[in-house]
Design brief:
Among the domains are: 567-638 and 917-942, no CATH class; 708-883, no CATH class. The protein is 39% helix and 15% strand. One of its GO terms (biological process) is DNA biosynthetic process.
Length: 972
């Protein structure tokens, strides 16, 4: 960034001498022993390849990690967080170097700013923080690992909120600030409601452009910066108040663009995710949210009118039917997943700094909500690490960890750098923090609690309450030592009021079992301390907690689940040391079964069933009342949408900010269901809600043909045909059949489309030109067999009479009917029907690169080359037909190979106790858990592919994360 503001020079209050510093006791580390010396370290080779091409995209050999870190965790940390040029001596090669770089920077700043009573306390802090990090108990957010302790600006925040006023200077400054934030790999959000609507006049007498117009410029800027300097989309949030006169235009922006995408796709343009023509579509680089008020929501309930207000005067200039507008919001979300809702009155009712200003916006993932021109640095705990051998949650240990972590997070503001002066000043004055957690879904399952159950929600509520209560308690203790935040005095009463609201919410939690009762008792004590200490000392931090997506850092901690999310699926894709991979059943499944009283033989049978089917329905010996414990985000027993909403509502009263999470709905969901989710979210006290209906967006994970080149080729062919008709009108064309030789080159291809198996044999002339095809579908009836035979004969005769293969390809690709979905072909990963797959495969086998390019059909290698170089063109083209291998028809006995013997994999729980061995088997052709679940279930998962390594991503909060390389779709 060209403009960087440091917090060090303006944080003098930190050394104000209010107290003698913290006196710290060791909890995790051992006196006289460095945390590194208690660990067995091993050297590994990290070689990351693109699964489509097999080419190495990253290589660093001999890196050092603890022996209990998974291959995936060490790979992601090595590729994402180690600093220095790859291959140079300056490159970091050990986790020790990475952790030391960060922890020693924090400890040094803590000493300098008076956080520790003695040098011995500073050493305890350093050792405890080091122990927690190397044992994967928590992680800072990614910018800390990127920047702290390096020559780069010490940016520790991933979340920013900007502001824009109703002036051209402010609007252009918005473009500038947002651009620099995107360039640095972070995201930002802002509210455009101060900009005059297109229904209001300018001082010159003209009509204002309106915020939606200015959104176009910002969207184009974000898209340009993304394509120029990164492979992931820009992360941004755009918010508009529901009483803005342009609200209906704002609501419809992305839905109208989705209609445009469909029209262009049907016209032959390449409108898939990452396609050549998708960049012409607007508003695709932002998440949109409508900021609704209680007044509006009550009008929706009552069926009354609602007033839209002028930005300059506040007067009502138009009245609309509230239910009608609400229906338009839900319809747009049904069509394209935007907009989400943010509940303004709820947000500001929990605001600790109302005297400074209202909360008007959020960060891109909606978990950080605070003042304009502010930032938040995040850290998340791995909840499963605090599950004891007796399957109870160690609340006391958890609280001790929170104390150390929140202290470190506050110290970081003393030395942090910020992208703009305004953001730096606000962050220094209010010191907003965002502690959170990951692995909630795995924790609940291991404890035998259903995610969508009263017991599960009670456990989540008490843990969240304890986390935030302990954080504010430590914040009040820090205020006594280094002073409250600069803005506390003017907001003291409001801040203490919100603390009492948190305490009151804690008092209303209904505990369900002895485990959550123990956590609740500790949380109740923490909140009592918060009230007492805050009254005397004030608070060091305006905010303390959020629930972030924990995408990349979740993998760093070897978490099964991210943020507040349930488990994604019961089967997992696991990388092995030395290369290779295998399919395993989620490690928490056998632990949960043991917790619920099942015997070893029963556990073995149930786990084996899950390994084969991917779900627990009809698993041998499993009681139906226990099914809910194993409900996941995807699969046969996917959680109901309101189950997600109720879990968010359980945690929300105990968070300073909000929750990054999207409520997923099936493709069959209705607009009314989305309305109900938005309405119930408001009633249940959520601060924000977003919905995503499967397959509501046109773009597919891989380009599936089409494109402008295809349209141009068709137009050119039509023009040529018309011209020929005019010149030689009297000529009668008599086609001649070019028969195949008795012995000809052939190729047999087995394929699977959406779970349906089939075989295709294609025969060619001596010159390599396709002349015939034969199709056979597995398990087909006599009628369908006859139809396929007739279709094969018709196509074959057409080819022999001179119908170009390109014509068949252009006519039969993009036909949509069942079976459709994932295939087992690396070059054609998704197919809209069997015909779509067959003719794509024929094009790849028999057409030249130029011919396929005109049709928008490329191999996996060519698509990867385009991502890396911007060109599909091969260095040296080889003809498809020349590479045919002579072979006979495939035997009907060809089936997927099955592994005869299970491989026993030793797994360990988070406290070191050995768990029951889980059967595993090679992961076949899947490359991530999402692809594995697709293969097992035969249903497609509506997630994008990773631009870095080409594998299917999975949901994490309100975005997506790649299991293969740790990349995220816009959040850290």
């Amino acid at each position: 960034m060209t403009e960087t503001v440091s917090g060090a020079s303006t944080s003098g209050a930190a050394t104000g001498g209010h107290g003698k510093g913290l006196t710290l006791e060791r909890v995790f580390s051992t006196p006289g022993v460095h945390p590194y010396d208690e660990i067995t370290w091993e050297r590994r080779d990290v070689v990351q390849t693109n699964w489509k091409t097999g080419a190495a995209v990253f290589e660093q050999r001999g890196v050092e990690f603890p022996d209990f870190w998974s291959v995936n965790a060490s790979t992601i940390v090595t590729t994402k967080y180690f600093r220095g040029a790859v291959g140079s001596d300056a490159r970091e090669w050990s986790l020790k170097q990475l952790v030391d770089r960060v922890v020693k920077t924090y400890t040094k700043a803590g000493r300098e700013h008076g956080y520790f009573a003695t040098d011995a306390d500073a050493e305890v802090f350093e050792h405890e923080l080091t122990w927690l990090l190397v044992h994967q108990y928590f992680s800072f957010n990614s910018p800390v690992w990127f920047n702290v302790g390096t020559p780069s600006p010490q940016q520790v925040s991933a979340c920013f909120i900007l502001s824009v006023d109703d002036s051209m200077d402010s609007i252009l400054n918005w473009y500038k600030e947002e651009g620099f934030i995107f360039k640095g790999g972070s995201g930002a959000g802002l509210n455009l409601s101060r900009i005059r609507s297109s229904k209001e006049l300018l001082s010159s007498g003209g009509t204002a452009s309106g915020p939606v117009s200015f959104m176009r410029g910002a969207d184009a800027s974000a898209g340009t910066i993304k394509s120029g300097g990164a492979t992931r989309r820009a992360a941004k949030m755009v918010v508009l108040d529901v009483d803005h006169p342009d609200i209906e235009e704002f609501v419809q922006t992305k839905a109208r663009e989705e209609d445009k995408i469909r029209a262009l796709r049907d016209a032959g343009f390449d409108m898939d995710l990452g396609g050549a023509d998708i960049t012409s579509v607007q508003y695709q680089n932002a998440n949109n949210s409508v900021r609704v008020s209680d007044e509006f929501m009550r009008a929706v309930e009552d069926g009354t009118e609602f007033g839209l207000r002028a930005r300059m005067t506040g007067e009502v200039i138009e009245k609309v039917d509230a239910r009608g507008l609400f229906r338009k919001i839900a319809t747009a979300a049904w069509e394209c997943a935007d907009p989400g809702l943010q509940y303004d009155d709820t947000i500001n009712d929990w605001h600790t700094n109302p005297e400074t200003g209202r909360i008007t916006a959020s960060n891109p993932c909606s978990e950080y909500m605070s003042l304009d021109n502010s930032s938040c640095n995040l850290a998340s705990l791995n909840l499963l690490k605090f599950l004891k051998d007796d399957d109870t949650f160690d609340a006391e240990l958890f609280a001790k960890a929170v104390e150390f972590i929140i202290t470190a997070m506050d110290i970081s503001i003393c030395f942090a750098d910020f992208p703009t002066e305004a953001i730096g000043q606000t962050t220094i004055d209010y010191r907003q923090l965002g502690i959170g957690y990951a692995n909630l879904g795995a924790l609940l399952m291991a404890m035998g609690l259903g995610y969508d159950s009263e017991g599960g929600r009670s456990m989540a509520a008490t843990i969240t309450s304890l986390m935030t209560g302990t954080s504010y308690k430590r914040s009040a203790e820090l205020a006594a030592i280094v002073g409250p935040y600069n803005g506390y005095a003017r907001n003291a009463e409001a801040h203490k009021r919100v603390m009492r609201k948190h305490q009151a919410a804690n008092d209303t939690v209904r505990t369900m079992h002895t485990n959550d009762q123990a956590v609740h008792r500790l949380a109740t004590k923490a909140w009592a301390d918060v009230i007492a200490l805050g009254e005397t000392n004030g608070f060091r931090n305006a905010q303390a907690s959020v629930l972030a997506p924990t995408g990349t850092i979740g993998f760093m901690m070897d978490c099964d689940t991210t943020g507040i999310e349930p488990d994604f699926s019961l089967v997992k894709f696991k990388k092995l040391v030395g290369g290779g991979s295998m399919q395993i059943v989620n490690q928490t499944v056998p632990r949960a079964l043991k917790k619920m009283g099942y015997q070893p033989e029963q556990i073995e049978a149930i786990v084996a069933y899950i390994a084969e089917h991917g779900h627990v329905v009809d698993a041998p010996g499993l009681k139906t009342e226990h099914y809910e414990v194993f409900d996941c985000a995807m699969g046969a027993r996917a959680l109901k949408p309101m189950g997600h909403v109720r879990m968010m509502a359980a945690a929300q009263p105990f968070l300073s900010g909000a929750i990054s999470k999207t409520v997923n709905l099936p493709e069959t969901a209705t607009v009314e269901e989305i309305e109900e989710i938005y309405l119930q979210s408001w009633k249940l006290g959520l601060k924000a809600t977003a919905c995503y209906r499967d397959n509501c967006k046109v773009g597919q994970p891989l380009a599936d043909g089409g494109g402008k080149a295809k349209k141009d080729a068709a137009d050119a062919a039509a023009a040529t045909e018309a011209a020929a008709t005019k010149v030689v009108e009297k000529v009668v064309y008599a086609p001649t059949r070019k028969r195949l030789p008795k012995s000809r080159i052939s190729r047999t291809t087995s394929f699977t489309v959406g779970g349906a198996e089939g075989y295709m044999t294609s025969g060619a002339h001596d010159d390599g030109e396709l002349g015939e095809i034969f199709l056979k579908l597995g398990k087909q009836g006599s009628t369908l067999a006859g139809v396929m035979d007739a279709f094969s004969i018709a196509v074959s005769i057409g080819l022999q009479y001179g119908v170009p293969l390109e014509t068949y390809v252009s006519k039969f690709t993009n036909l949509r009917f069942e079976p459709a979905g994932l295939t087992d072909d690396a070059d054609v990963r998704m197919a809209q029907s069997i015909m779509d797959y067959i003719f794509r495969r024929l094009a790849l086998d028999y057409l030249s690169f130029d011919q396929r390019s005109a049709l928008g059909i490329y191999s996996a290698e060519e698509r990867q080359r385009h991502l890396e170089t911007g060109s599909y063109e091969p260095v040296e083209e080889t003809g498809g037909a020349a590479e045919l291998i002579e072979s006979g028809p495939s035997s009907q006995a060809v089936v997927d190979a099955e592994v005869a013997d299970d491989i026993e994999v030793e797994t360990k729980d988070t406290r070191g106790a050995e768990a029951r061995e889980v059967p595993a088997k090679p992961a076949s052709e899947a490359h991530t858990t999402a692809e594995l679940l697709e293969k097992i279930s035969g249903t497609a998962i509506d997630s994008p592919l990773c631009f870095t390594c080409g594998t299917k991503m999975r949901p994490a909060g309100s975005c997506y994360v790649c299991e293969g390389c740790g990349s995220t779709s816009g959040c850290s």
